[in-house]
């Protein structure tokens, strides 16, 4: 059954595929009324594995090494595939599997008043275990955001801010947008606040813990913030070092 309900967000995106557009890590190409989707790294590559639209959901669930992807906007989308969407409706279905909510957020961000929920507004609504994230000061939030939302971990433009932290643009990330702090970022912020509460004890002691983790060869899951080897922690420590150096220079 063909839907007669207009989808302005989808229409706007389709208009941008002229004749191609990179959306996240997906190269969209318009050919004879159809849309070809494939990993952006596969431009010009022949003999790609053809996948059906419904198979894209499973493809987006795990990295090439089989690790679960808690963020579909992470730059870890599997490669080596090609999918054909016969019309705009199928393109919409395909992108919903690859980047849930991505088209709607992309469109919303282009409106005169984008529905952005900034950090202070968002965390003020939190109760329970995330209430602690309100205790981070603006400088600490900036460090958390720069580390947790780094391009190495997420391709969404961070449009939400806190004092002293500018929003990101497409040149820094991709066409994907982030309108409010996500669950992964909130969990990261909660973990950082716990470390900050220990007045640097956990930071100074993380080297031995990291060495222990490396010794047993355990692969750290992206969303596991109980391990000091989580790559977001490593980036956070770098951001803190940069801030300390800048403070000394001033």
Number of strands: 7
Order of helices and strands: HEEEEHEHHHHEEHHH
Residue stretches low in confidence (pLDDT < 50, at least 5 long) are: 202-215
Query: Between the first and last Cα atoms, what is the distance in angstroms?
Result: 65 Å
CATH class term of the largest domain: Alpha Beta
**Major beta sheet, specifics?**
5 strands, mixed
> Architecture of the largest domain, according to CATH?
2-Layer Sandwich
If you had to describe this structure to a student in words, what would you say it looks like?
This protein is α/β, with parallel strands linked by helices. Helices cover 39% and strands 11% of the residues. The protein has nine helices and seven strands; from the N terminus they run H-E-E-E-E-H-E-H-H-H-H-E-E-H-H-H. The strands form two sheets. A five-stranded mixed β-sheet has the order 1-2-3-5-4. Strand 1 and strand 2 (26-31) form a beta hairpin. The termini are far apart. Mean pLDDT is 90; it is low at 202-215.
Brief descriptors of the model:
250 residues; Alpha-Beta Plaits; 39% helix; two-stranded parallel ribbon; Gyrase A, domain 2; 9 helices; 5-stranded mixed beta sheet; globular; alpha/beta
């Amino acid at each position: 059954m063909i839907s007669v309900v207009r989808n302005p967000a989808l229409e706007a995106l389709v208009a941008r595929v002229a004749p191609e557009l990179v959306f996240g890590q997906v190269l969209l190409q318009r050919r004879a009324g159809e849309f070809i989707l494939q990993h952006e790294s596969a431009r010009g590559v022949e003999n790609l594995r053809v996948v059906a639209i419904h198979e894209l959901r499973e493809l987006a669930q795990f990295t090439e090494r089989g690790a679960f992807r808690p963020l579909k906007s992470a730059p870890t989308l599997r490669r080596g595939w090609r999918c054909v969407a016969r019309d705009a409706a199928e393109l919409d279905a395909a992108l919903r599997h690859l980047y849930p909510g991505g088209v709607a957020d992309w469109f919303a961000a282009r409106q005169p008043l984008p529905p952005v929920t900034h950090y202070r507004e968002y965390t003020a609504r939190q109760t329970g275990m995330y209430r602690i994230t309100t205790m981070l000061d603006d400088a600490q939030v900036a460090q958390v955001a720069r580390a947790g939302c780094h391009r190495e971990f997420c391709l969404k433009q961070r449009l939400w801010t806190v004092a002293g932290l500018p929003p990101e643009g497409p040149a820094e990330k991709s066409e994907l947008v982030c309108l409010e702090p996500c669950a992964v970022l909130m969990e990261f912020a909660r973990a950082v606040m716990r470390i900050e509460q220990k007045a640097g004890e956990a930071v100074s002691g993380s080297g031995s813990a990291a060495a222990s983790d490396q010794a047993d060869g355990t692969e750290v899951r992206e969303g596991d913030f109980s391990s000091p080897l989580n790559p977001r922690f490593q980036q956070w420590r770098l951001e803190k070092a940069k801030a300390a150096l800048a403070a000394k220079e001033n």
